[in-house]
Amino acid sequence: MGEKIQKLLIANRGEIARRIMRTCRDLGIATVAVFSDADEGMPFVREADEAVRIGPAPSQESYLKIEGIIDAAKRTGAEAIHPGYGFLAENAAFAEACAEAGIIFVGPSPSAIRSMGSKREAKALVAAANVPVIPGYDGADQNPEILAKEAKKIDFPVLLKASAGGGGKGMRIVRTEDELPDAIAGARREAEGSFGDGALLVEKYIERPRHVEIQIIGDQKGALVHLFERECSVQRRYQKIIEEAPSPALNEELRAKMGQAAIAAGQAIAYYGAGTVEFILDANGDFFFLEVNTRLQVEHPVTECITGLDLVAIQIAVAQGESLGFAQEDLRLQGAAVEARLYAEDPDQGFLPGSGGVIDWHCESLEGVRYDAGVEAGSEVGIHYDPMLAKIIASGSDRGEAIRRLRSALRHLSVQGLVTNREFLVRVLEHPRFIAGDIDTHFVQDSMGEAPALSEAWLDRGLIAAALWAEAERREARPFLGASLAGYRNSRFALESVEFALAEEEYGLRYVALGDERYRFVIGERELVVRRGARSGRSIDIEVDGIRSSVRVVWEADQVAVQHDGIARTFTIVPRFPDASGEDVGGGCTAPMPGKIVEVRVEAGNRVEAGDTLVIMEAMKMEHSVVAPHEGLVTEVRVSAGDQVDADAVLVIMEDEEAAAD
Ligand code: ADP
Predict the structure, then answer these.
(1) Are residues 246 and 274 in the same domain?
(2) Ligand 1 atom 1, closest CA
(3) Which atom of ligand 1 is nearest to the CA of 171?
(4) Per residue, what are the HEC states of 378-396?
(5) Mean predicted confidence (pLDDT) in 441-453
(6) How high is the pLDDT of residue 479?
(7) For the domain that residue 156 is a member of, what is the CATH number?
(8) Sign of the dihedral defined by the CA atoms of residues 595, 59, 211, 125, in that order
């Protein structure tokens, strides 16, 4: 057993940096974190044995700067670098730079990375090894006319993909010929912006496929095995949000076939280290190669759960020349595991990524549940990096048990201060189609629908908890009055009143203390008898009409987040004497988030229809269209291509019909 690696640098951030450190600690390897200015306060920096500042927030100037990272490794004496996923993980030049500096790169060979980095080259290579690929055009001639001709040959619908792609960026489904020119231009622009390479592939678009991928792992002596499959069909924007192993769509026979194909693909490029061969599986049980990810995947924990292996430990072992130490026959698939990715994003706004400060982070410790989190209370989630906050992974003896555990973990998890997809994930895990394993890559789009409205019972309880919390805070803030009952009035008609706002709604509550921690509340037409129980840390017990439950309350300035029964909402306290309201720019079309203006489609004097694209912005490496909210005349355009704008910045002013009519 070699013990070459005593100290390892992690060229990454967030949850994956912490995940890698956990294994290093287990193995007795010292860790070095690298961090940008934006990440100084993040847990992964503090948890590393040493940490090196590598530059300002934009990743091009920090996490993607090869020299800076190599230099940090040399200065700290790290013998190895683990790239995590994203950033430099699939950058062959980085792997080479490590080798030149005499540093072990924890990953595959630069040549394997290079050949799989181009979807075009990868397809050709694996097709030669008899792995089924999707029919399509992967030629070097990128003339739009050639792409159009090839698309017609394949027949619509087709899918345009960035050859250098990843994370669903630069992909466009094209159903008819006349959509092609715009789609080619958009996909190319996104590909150039994200990968610096605008080359596109044209593929037959497979309707309603499942995404099934095979984990492979090999050593430098030629041993290569697969660690079964992961199903990742629950996606939005071509990006996974729930992953599981095993796939409910595979039987032993198909599993063996796909495993074989993955190994053939790996052998074709003499693969070592951990990698993933991605396939799509159609309704007939035919599968087609998508790509090889030459790194550790976000969703690797579900494979760890069903195999009992630590993939990071194996990566480190094979990187320092050790043998795998097991063969395919030694591996057993046991139980089931499901992972959910918690993102700072708004499912009600097309999964628009968000940012903000995490003011509450609370995970329940539950049987079979693992939390791989990048944040903690107090963390800032900025706009510079991927908005994934954490992965929650549950395992069980079968799929049903794993799902139930994950659901429970997500329902009890409290994350306040920013909008997340937590409740959306719970709804997926409750969906009859998901529970039946009847999913495809369109599941979210086709079946998830809108979130149900809040029930009256939830609202009553949430509002009462907020009101009683506020009252207790007031009592504590006025200690000399503490002995007297806040909200207490002699006259039964003189009620305390408090008002909360949620989205567009305002909710007024009136209540009176009856003594002995009992209250009478009036909400709308309803009268409720409430008993106030203990308040501890961030939760308060309340009994409403004879049913007691605990409500989590997080108070910050004029915002109060309440969570119970798995649902959380943040109310704004409506001041009794409202501030003069800020200036309102009538009919303004504003930036939904901070970002860069890519294209301006209108100019002053244009008439537009509701829904017409006014401006295209890029934020979080994705393009977003800002559309006209109503039909009308554009009177002013305040931005031009290339501008950097803040959230809510006014981009375009339109003559507002309603205002004009006033
Ligand atoms: P990326 O590298 O950007 O993640 P992939 O090639 O891995 O792109 O594809 C991502 C997802 O897009 C897949 O999981 C699948 O849902 C969908 N997809 C890719 N190619 C096709 C295709 N030809 N037909 C239908 N869906 C596809």
Answers:
(1) yes
(2) 166
(3) 3
(4) CCEECCCCCCEEEEEEEEE
(5) 95
(6) 53
(7) 3.30.1490.20
(8) positive
